[in-house]
Protein backbone atom coordinates (compact mmCIF):
# COMPACT_ATOMS: atom_id res chain seq x y z
CA UNK A 1 0.00 0.00 0.00
CA UNK A 2 1.49 3.30 -1.06
CA UNK A 3 2.18 5.85 1.58
CA UNK A 4 1.99 3.57 4.62
CA UNK A 5 5.01 2.05 6.32
CA UNK A 6 4.37 -1.18 8.15
CA UNK A 7 5.48 -1.09 11.75
CA UNK A 8 7.61 -4.20 12.37
CA UNK A 9 6.77 -3.94 16.06
CA UNK A 10 3.12 -2.83 16.23
CA UNK A 11 1.71 -1.79 19.57
CA UNK A 12 -0.19 -5.04 19.86
CA UNK A 13 1.84 -8.23 19.58
CA UNK A 14 0.21 -11.61 18.88
CA UNK A 15 -0.22 -13.57 22.16
CA UNK A 16 0.88 -16.81 20.52
CA UNK A 17 1.47 -18.64 23.78
CA UNK A 18 -2.05 -17.78 24.88
CA UNK A 19 -3.66 -19.06 21.72
CA UNK A 20 -1.56 -22.22 22.06
CA UNK A 21 -3.05 -22.84 25.50
CA UNK A 22 -6.57 -22.12 24.32
CA UNK A 23 -6.25 -24.39 21.31
CA UNK A 24 -5.04 -27.13 23.63
CA UNK A 25 -8.73 -27.68 24.36
CA UNK A 26 -9.27 -28.15 20.63
CA UNK A 27 -7.15 -31.32 20.79
CA UNK A 28 -9.97 -32.93 22.74
CA UNK A 29 -12.65 -31.14 20.75
CA UNK A 30 -11.72 -33.04 17.59
CA UNK A 31 -12.22 -36.38 19.28
CA UNK A 32 -15.46 -35.24 20.87
CA UNK A 33 -16.93 -34.02 17.62
CA UNK A 34 -15.58 -36.57 15.19
CA UNK A 35 -15.23 -39.85 16.95
CA UNK A 36 -18.29 -40.58 19.07
CA UNK A 37 -19.80 -43.78 17.60
CA UNK A 38 -22.12 -43.37 14.59
CA UNK A 39 -19.59 -41.29 12.73
CA UNK A 40 -21.03 -42.03 9.29
CA UNK A 41 -24.46 -40.47 9.09
CA UNK A 42 -26.87 -39.89 6.23
CA UNK A 43 -28.30 -36.51 5.42
CA UNK A 44 -31.77 -35.68 6.62
CA UNK A 45 -34.16 -32.89 5.71
CA UNK A 46 -35.15 -32.71 9.36
CA UNK A 47 -31.94 -33.23 11.33
CA UNK A 48 -32.60 -33.80 15.02
CA UNK A 49 -29.27 -35.39 15.95
CA UNK A 50 -26.72 -33.56 18.00
CA UNK A 51 -24.04 -31.90 15.87
CA UNK A 52 -21.41 -33.45 18.13
CA UNK A 53 -21.18 -36.74 16.24
CA UNK A 54 -19.14 -36.24 13.07
CA UNK A 55 -17.95 -33.66 10.62
CA UNK A 56 -20.75 -34.59 8.22
CA UNK A 57 -23.51 -34.46 10.84
CA UNK A 58 -22.18 -31.25 12.38
CA UNK A 59 -21.91 -29.59 8.97
CA UNK A 60 -25.45 -30.65 8.07
CA UNK A 61 -26.77 -29.16 11.29
CA UNK A 62 -24.70 -26.00 10.85
CA UNK A 63 -25.95 -25.33 7.32
CA UNK A 64 -29.56 -26.12 8.24
CA UNK A 65 -29.83 -24.15 11.46
CA UNK A 66 -26.88 -21.86 12.10
CA UNK A 67 -26.22 -19.97 8.87
CA UNK A 68 -27.35 -16.38 9.43
CA UNK A 69 -30.10 -15.17 7.09
CA UNK A 70 -28.39 -11.82 6.67
CA UNK A 71 -24.64 -11.42 6.79
CA UNK A 72 -22.38 -8.41 6.91
CA UNK A 73 -19.24 -8.24 4.79
CA UNK A 74 -15.83 -6.88 5.78
CA UNK A 75 -14.77 -6.32 2.18
CA UNK A 76 -12.71 -3.11 1.95
CA UNK A 77 -14.02 -0.61 -0.58
CA UNK A 78 -11.71 2.41 -0.25
CA UNK A 79 -9.15 4.37 -2.18
CA UNK A 80 -5.49 4.42 -1.18
CA UNK A 81 -5.96 7.68 0.68
CA UNK A 82 -8.90 6.34 2.65
CA UNK A 83 -6.90 3.20 3.35
CA UNK A 84 -4.11 5.15 5.03
CA UNK A 85 -6.64 6.83 7.27
CA UNK A 86 -8.29 3.50 8.04
CA UNK A 87 -5.05 1.84 9.15
CA UNK A 88 -4.10 4.76 11.38
CA UNK A 89 -7.58 5.00 12.85
CA UNK A 90 -7.60 1.27 13.69
CA UNK A 91 -4.13 1.50 15.22
CA UNK A 92 -5.20 4.42 17.42
CA UNK A 93 -8.40 2.64 18.47
CA UNK A 94 -6.58 -0.57 19.37
CA UNK A 95 -3.97 1.34 21.35
CA UNK A 96 -6.75 3.11 23.27
CA UNK A 97 -8.54 -0.17 24.06
CA UNK A 98 -5.34 -1.86 25.23
CA UNK A 99 -4.41 1.13 27.38
CA UNK A 100 -7.81 1.06 29.06
CA UNK A 101 -7.46 -2.66 29.74
CA UNK A 102 -4.11 -2.10 31.41
CA UNK A 103 -5.36 0.86 33.44
CA UNK A 104 -8.32 -1.13 34.72
CA UNK A 105 -6.21 -4.10 35.77
CA UNK A 106 -7.05 -6.19 32.72
CA UNK A 107 -3.61 -7.01 31.27
CA UNK A 108 -3.12 -9.41 28.40
CA UNK A 109 -2.79 -12.93 29.77
CA UNK A 110 -5.39 -12.70 32.53
CA UNK A 111 -8.56 -12.61 30.43
CA UNK A 112 -10.03 -14.66 27.57
CA UNK A 113 -8.39 -14.22 24.19
CA UNK A 114 -10.39 -11.83 22.04
CA UNK A 115 -10.74 -13.01 18.43
CA UNK A 116 -12.30 -11.09 15.58
CA UNK A 117 -13.67 -13.43 12.90
CA UNK A 118 -13.66 -11.81 9.49
CA UNK A 119 -16.95 -11.75 7.60
CA UNK A 120 -15.64 -12.90 4.24
CA UNK A 121 -17.76 -13.20 1.08
CA UNK A 122 -19.65 -16.49 0.81
CA UNK A 123 -17.41 -17.81 -1.97
CA UNK A 124 -14.66 -18.25 0.63
CA UNK A 125 -16.85 -19.74 3.35
CA UNK A 126 -20.46 -20.93 3.09
CA UNK A 127 -20.34 -21.73 -0.63
CA UNK A 128 -17.42 -24.11 -0.05
CA UNK A 129 -19.23 -25.80 2.84
CA UNK A 130 -22.28 -26.28 0.62
CA UNK A 131 -20.03 -27.68 -2.12
CA UNK A 132 -18.72 -30.32 0.27
CA UNK A 133 -22.21 -31.10 1.57
CA UNK A 134 -23.73 -31.47 -1.90
CA UNK A 135 -20.97 -33.68 -3.30
CA UNK A 136 -20.10 -35.79 -0.27
CA UNK A 137 -22.16 -38.88 -1.19
CA UNK A 138 -22.10 -38.56 -4.96
CA UNK A 139 -18.44 -38.12 -5.74
CA UNK A 140 -15.93 -40.83 -6.55
CA UNK A 141 -13.15 -38.25 -6.74
CA UNK A 142 -9.80 -39.69 -5.68
CA UNK A 143 -6.34 -38.28 -5.23
CA UNK A 144 -3.45 -39.57 -7.32
CA UNK A 145 -2.73 -42.25 -4.69
CA UNK A 146 -6.33 -43.45 -4.48
CA UNK A 147 -7.48 -41.68 -1.30
CA UNK A 148 -11.05 -40.30 -1.31
CA UNK A 149 -10.77 -36.51 -1.29
CA UNK A 150 -13.74 -36.02 1.02
CA UNK A 151 -12.13 -38.28 3.60
CA UNK A 152 -8.98 -36.16 3.41
CA UNK A 153 -11.05 -33.01 3.88
CA UNK A 154 -12.59 -34.48 7.03
CA UNK A 155 -9.15 -35.47 8.25
CA UNK A 156 -7.96 -31.86 7.87
CA UNK A 157 -11.20 -30.19 9.00
CA UNK A 158 -9.61 -28.13 11.78
CA UNK A 159 -10.68 -24.98 9.93
CA UNK A 160 -14.35 -25.98 10.14
CA UNK A 161 -14.33 -27.03 13.80
CA UNK A 162 -12.58 -23.89 14.98
CA UNK A 163 -14.75 -21.56 12.90
CA UNK A 164 -18.00 -23.31 13.86
CA UNK A 165 -17.14 -22.94 17.54
CA UNK A 166 -16.23 -19.28 17.14
CA UNK A 167 -19.53 -18.67 15.33
CA UNK A 168 -21.66 -20.48 17.92
CA UNK A 169 -23.79 -18.75 20.54
CA UNK A 170 -21.82 -18.09 23.72
CA UNK A 171 -23.85 -20.69 25.65
CA UNK A 172 -22.87 -23.36 23.09
CA UNK A 173 -19.16 -22.56 22.89
CA UNK A 174 -16.58 -25.21 23.74
CA UNK A 175 -13.52 -22.95 23.95
CA UNK A 176 -14.63 -20.80 26.86
CA UNK A 177 -11.27 -19.03 27.14
CA UNK A 178 -11.67 -17.56 23.65
CA UNK A 179 -14.18 -14.75 23.09
CA UNK A 180 -15.41 -13.62 19.70
CA UNK A 181 -15.59 -9.83 19.52
CA UNK A 182 -17.63 -7.70 17.12
CA UNK A 183 -15.25 -4.75 16.94
CA UNK A 184 -11.81 -5.09 15.39
CA UNK A 185 -10.20 -2.67 17.83
CA UNK A 186 -11.03 -5.06 20.68
CA UNK A 187 -9.29 -8.04 19.09
CA UNK A 188 -6.07 -9.74 20.13
CA UNK A 189 -6.18 -11.95 17.05
CA UNK A 190 -7.96 -12.04 13.69
CA UNK A 191 -9.28 -15.32 12.29
CA UNK A 192 -9.42 -15.85 8.51
CA UNK A 193 -12.31 -18.29 7.85
CA UNK A 194 -11.23 -19.45 4.39
CA UNK A 195 -11.64 -23.18 3.74
CA UNK A 196 -8.36 -23.76 1.95
CA UNK A 197 -8.54 -27.58 1.99
CA UNK A 198 -12.07 -27.86 0.59
CA UNK A 199 -11.24 -25.44 -2.20
CA UNK A 200 -8.05 -27.30 -3.09
CA UNK A 201 -9.71 -30.69 -3.45
CA UNK A 202 -13.16 -29.81 -4.83
CA UNK A 203 -12.45 -26.97 -7.28
CA UNK A 204 -10.80 -27.24 -10.66
CA UNK A 205 -7.11 -26.34 -10.52
CA UNK A 206 -7.33 -22.95 -12.24
CA UNK A 207 -10.54 -22.08 -10.42
CA UNK A 208 -8.87 -22.90 -7.13
CA UNK A 209 -5.80 -20.78 -7.91
CA UNK A 210 -8.01 -17.86 -8.90
CA UNK A 211 -9.95 -18.15 -5.63
CA UNK A 212 -6.68 -18.28 -3.70
CA UNK A 213 -5.54 -15.04 -5.36
CA UNK A 214 -8.87 -13.39 -4.55
CA UNK A 215 -8.63 -14.51 -0.91
CA UNK A 216 -5.08 -13.20 -0.70
CA UNK A 217 -6.11 -9.77 -1.99
CA UNK A 218 -9.20 -9.67 0.23
CA UNK A 219 -7.21 -10.37 3.40
CA UNK A 220 -4.20 -8.20 2.63
CA UNK A 221 -6.50 -5.27 1.81
CA UNK A 222 -7.77 -5.31 5.40
CA UNK A 223 -6.56 -2.39 7.58
CA UNK A 224 -5.85 -4.84 10.42
CA UNK A 225 -3.56 -6.88 8.15
CA UNK A 226 -1.72 -3.80 6.93
CA UNK A 227 -1.37 -2.53 10.49
CA UNK A 228 0.51 -5.63 11.69
CA UNK A 229 1.73 -7.18 8.46
CA UNK A 230 -0.47 -10.17 9.32
CA UNK A 231 1.36 -11.11 12.51
CA UNK A 232 -1.87 -11.23 14.53
CA UNK A 233 -3.85 -13.15 11.90
CA UNK A 234 -4.66 -16.87 12.04
CA UNK A 235 -4.62 -18.74 8.73
CA UNK A 236 -5.75 -22.40 8.59
CA UNK A 237 -3.62 -24.31 6.07
CA UNK A 238 -3.84 -27.73 7.67
CA UNK A 239 -3.39 -29.70 4.47
CA UNK A 240 0.16 -29.21 3.15
CA UNK A 241 -1.11 -28.66 -0.42
CA UNK A 242 -3.70 -26.05 0.50
CA UNK A 243 -3.12 -22.39 -0.37
CA UNK A 244 0.30 -23.39 -1.69
CA UNK A 245 0.39 -21.07 -4.71
CA UNK A 246 0.02 -17.84 -2.70
CA UNK A 247 0.79 -18.61 0.93
CA UNK A 248 4.31 -17.18 0.68
CA UNK A 249 2.65 -13.76 0.65
CA UNK A 250 1.05 -14.51 4.03
CA UNK A 251 4.05 -16.06 5.76
CA UNK A 252 3.83 -13.60 8.67
CA UNK A 253 0.45 -14.96 9.75
CA UNK A 254 -0.01 -17.65 12.40
CA UNK A 255 -0.52 -20.82 10.38
CA UNK A 256 -2.50 -23.81 11.65
CA UNK A 257 -0.53 -26.84 10.44
CA UNK A 258 -0.44 -30.66 10.71
CA UNK A 259 3.36 -30.58 11.20
CA UNK A 260 6.40 -28.41 10.55
CA UNK A 261 7.92 -30.48 7.72
CA UNK A 262 11.40 -29.05 8.14
CA UNK A 263 12.51 -31.07 5.11
CA UNK A 264 11.25 -28.25 2.87
CA UNK A 265 9.19 -30.60 0.69
CA UNK A 266 5.92 -28.87 1.55
CA UNK A 267 6.76 -25.59 3.26
CA UNK A 268 9.58 -23.39 2.06
CA UNK A 269 12.30 -22.26 4.49
CA UNK A 270 11.23 -19.19 6.39
CA UNK A 271 7.52 -19.83 5.95
CA UNK A 272 6.86 -21.96 9.03
CA UNK A 273 8.49 -22.22 12.45
CA UNK A 274 7.42 -23.15 15.96
CA UNK A 275 7.81 -19.64 17.37
CA UNK A 276 5.01 -18.45 15.07
CA UNK A 277 2.79 -21.32 14.00
CA UNK A 278 0.64 -23.97 15.67
CA UNK A 279 0.52 -27.69 15.02
CA UNK A 280 -2.96 -29.11 15.45
CA UNK A 281 -3.98 -32.79 15.35
CA UNK A 282 -5.64 -34.60 12.51
CA UNK A 283 -9.24 -35.66 12.93
CA UNK A 284 -8.96 -39.47 13.20
CA UNK A 285 -10.47 -41.67 10.52
CA UNK A 286 -11.75 -44.37 12.87
CA UNK A 287 -14.32 -44.37 15.62
CA UNK A 288 -13.44 -43.91 19.26
CA UNK A 289 -12.90 -47.11 21.22
CA UNK A 290 -14.47 -46.02 24.51
CA UNK A 291 -14.09 -47.62 27.95
CA UNK A 292 -16.56 -50.41 27.15
CA UNK A 293 -14.84 -51.08 23.82
CA UNK A 294 -11.40 -51.12 25.45
CA UNK A 295 -12.57 -53.61 28.07
CA UNK A 296 -14.08 -55.92 25.44
CA UNK A 297 -11.10 -55.70 23.08
CA UNK A 298 -8.41 -56.28 25.70
CA UNK A 299 -8.55 -60.08 25.47
CA UNK A 300 -8.78 -59.95 21.65
CA UNK A 301 -5.51 -58.08 21.05
CA UNK A 302 -3.60 -61.01 19.63
CA UNK A 303 -1.54 -59.05 17.07
CA UNK A 304 1.73 -57.67 18.37
CA UNK A 305 2.25 -54.99 15.70
CA UNK A 306 -0.20 -53.75 13.06
CA UNK A 307 0.01 -51.47 10.02
CA UNK A 308 -2.45 -50.88 7.22
CA UNK A 309 -1.90 -48.17 4.61
CA UNK A 310 0.08 -47.20 1.56
CA UNK A 311 3.38 -49.07 1.50
CA UNK A 312 5.05 -46.77 -1.04
CA UNK A 313 5.36 -43.08 -0.18
CA UNK A 314 7.62 -40.17 -1.05
CA UNK A 315 10.13 -38.22 1.05
CA UNK A 316 10.35 -39.58 4.61
CA UNK A 317 7.64 -42.11 3.78
CA UNK A 318 10.20 -44.21 1.89
CA UNK A 319 10.96 -45.76 5.28
CA UNK A 320 7.77 -47.78 4.84
CA UNK A 321 9.37 -50.01 2.22
CA UNK A 322 12.26 -50.80 4.56
CA UNK A 323 9.88 -51.56 7.41
CA UNK A 324 7.91 -53.95 5.22
CA UNK A 325 11.09 -55.74 4.19
CA UNK A 326 12.22 -56.11 7.78
CA UNK A 327 8.91 -56.98 9.44
CA UNK A 328 6.83 -58.87 6.90
CA UNK A 329 8.03 -62.29 8.08
CA UNK A 330 7.96 -61.49 11.81
CA UNK A 331 5.62 -63.46 14.05
CA UNK A 332 2.38 -61.78 15.17
CA UNK A 333 3.03 -58.80 12.89
CA UNK A 334 0.42 -57.70 10.32
CA UNK A 335 1.51 -55.38 7.48
CA UNK A 336 -1.21 -54.66 4.89
CA UNK A 337 -1.55 -52.47 1.82
CA UNK A 338 -4.70 -50.40 2.11
CA UNK A 339 -6.50 -47.17 1.18
CA UNK A 340 -8.65 -44.72 3.11
CA UNK A 341 -11.98 -45.74 1.54
CA UNK A 342 -14.92 -47.00 3.55
CA UNK A 343 -13.73 -50.61 3.41
CA UNK A 344 -10.22 -49.53 4.31
CA UNK A 345 -11.49 -47.60 7.31
CA UNK A 346 -13.32 -50.64 8.67
CA UNK A 347 -10.29 -52.89 8.11
CA UNK A 348 -7.94 -50.42 9.82
CA UNK A 349 -10.27 -49.97 12.78
CA UNK A 350 -10.70 -53.71 13.20
CA UNK A 351 -6.94 -54.33 12.93
CA UNK A 352 -6.02 -51.63 15.44
CA UNK A 353 -8.53 -52.88 17.99
CA UNK A 354 -6.98 -56.34 17.77
CA UNK A 355 -3.40 -55.11 18.17
CA UNK A 356 -1.14 -54.10 21.04
CA UNK A 357 1.15 -51.83 19.00
CA UNK A 358 0.35 -49.86 15.83
CA UNK A 359 3.09 -48.73 13.47
CA UNK A 360 2.96 -45.01 12.64
CA UNK A 361 5.65 -44.25 10.04
CA UNK A 362 6.08 -41.04 8.09
CA UNK A 363 4.01 -40.62 4.96
CA UNK A 364 4.50 -38.01 2.24
CA UNK A 365 4.77 -35.63 5.20
CA UNK A 366 6.36 -36.37 8.59
CA UNK A 367 2.94 -36.69 10.25
CA UNK A 368 -0.02 -38.96 9.64
CA UNK A 369 -3.58 -39.31 10.90
CA UNK A 370 -2.67 -42.91 11.71
CA UNK A 371 -1.08 -41.77 14.99
CA UNK A 372 -4.41 -40.43 16.21
CA UNK A 373 -6.27 -43.44 14.78
CA UNK A 374 -4.09 -45.65 16.98
CA UNK A 375 -4.59 -43.52 20.09
CA UNK A 376 -8.38 -43.57 19.88
CA UNK A 377 -8.27 -47.32 19.14
CA UNK A 378 -6.39 -48.12 22.35
CA UNK A 379 -3.36 -49.26 20.36
CA UNK A 380 0.09 -48.04 21.40
CA UNK A 381 1.61 -46.04 18.50
CA UNK A 382 5.16 -46.82 17.37
CA UNK A 383 6.36 -43.61 15.72
CA UNK A 384 8.95 -43.85 12.94
CA UNK A 385 9.51 -40.31 11.65
CA UNK A 386 12.69 -38.26 12.07
CA UNK A 387 11.19 -34.84 11.29
CA UNK A 388 7.95 -35.12 13.27
CA UNK A 389 6.67 -32.28 15.47
CA UNK A 390 3.54 -33.31 17.40
CA UNK A 391 0.60 -31.12 18.44
CA UNK A 392 1.19 -29.40 21.79
CA UNK A 393 4.44 -31.30 22.27
CA UNK A 394 5.53 -28.79 24.89
CA UNK A 395 2.47 -29.61 27.01
CA UNK A 396 1.70 -33.26 26.33
CA UNK A 397 4.27 -35.95 27.14
CA UNK A 398 3.81 -38.35 24.22
CA UNK A 399 6.34 -40.73 25.76
CA UNK A 400 3.59 -41.86 28.12
CA UNK A 401 1.41 -43.12 25.26
CA UNK A 402 3.79 -43.73 22.35
CA UNK A 403 7.03 -45.49 21.47
CA UNK A 404 9.66 -43.87 19.26
CA UNK A 405 11.87 -45.80 16.87
From TrEMBL:
Keywords: Glycosyltransferase, Golgi apparatus, Membrane, Signal-anchor, Transferase, Transmembrane, Transmembrane helix. The chain crosses the membrane at residues 16-36. It comes from the Eukaryota. Its main location: Golgi. InterPro entries: Exostosin, Exostosin_GT47. GO terms for cellular component: Golgi membrane. It is found in: Golgi apparatus membrane. Residues 111-402 form the Exostosin GT47 domain. Pfam families: Exostosin_GT47. The keyword Transmembrane helix applies. GO terms for molecular function: glycosyltransferase activity. Belongs to the glycosyltransferase 47 family. This is Exostosin GT47 domain-containing protein. It comes from Fagus sylvatica.
Amino acid sequence: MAGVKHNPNPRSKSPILLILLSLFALFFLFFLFSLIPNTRTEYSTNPTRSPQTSFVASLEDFLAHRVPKTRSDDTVRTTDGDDVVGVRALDDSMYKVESERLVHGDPIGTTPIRVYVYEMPSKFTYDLLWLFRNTYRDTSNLTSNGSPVHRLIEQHSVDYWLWADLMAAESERVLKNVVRVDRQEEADLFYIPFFTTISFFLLEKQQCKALYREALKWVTDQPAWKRSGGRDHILPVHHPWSFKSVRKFMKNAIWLLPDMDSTGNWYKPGQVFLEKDLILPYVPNVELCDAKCLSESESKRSTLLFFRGRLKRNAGGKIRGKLVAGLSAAEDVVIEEGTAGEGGKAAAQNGMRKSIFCLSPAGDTPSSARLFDAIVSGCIPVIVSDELELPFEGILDYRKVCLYS
